[in-house]
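Handoff note, outgoing to incoming analyst
You'll be picking up this chain. Sequence as last confirmed:
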Amino acid sequence: MMSKSPISIGTEPATRRSLNPFSVLQQEIDRLFDGFTRNLPALSAGPLNLPSMDVGETDTTIEISAELPGLEQKDVELNLSDNILTIRGEKKNEREEKYKDYHLVERSFGSFARSVELPAGVKPEDISAEIAKGVLRVTVRKPAPKQAKQIEVKSAA
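Most recent structure output, in case you need it:
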């Protein structure tokens, strides 16, 4: 004969659970943060400073494009390590306005890193990259597929 557990797990009616003071507190905190971040796109959109990236492939290449507005060649770095291609960048911006009744100086900066796993066997010399109008285009030549090798079976003497 089974005895009833003294701890009820998920068997309470929904109305009883909603009266739990911790549940009500959690709902209010969620509502507060949702309302706070709704008007702040940088906080509500997800991770900060991550560029949009598209990855596609053809029969012979893998093509990666990343949106990097305001960045130039000197601001972007590509690394290949253990079949992981990493795109890093840093944006620095400074603006200064001087007028008769005010002086404004604004500085902003931020860095990012995005990584893509590539097939085994890709070599750095098989990768080319160019940046134009804030879009980085990376082309990776796929390695040749491994050829199966026939092994001769000999009879034992």
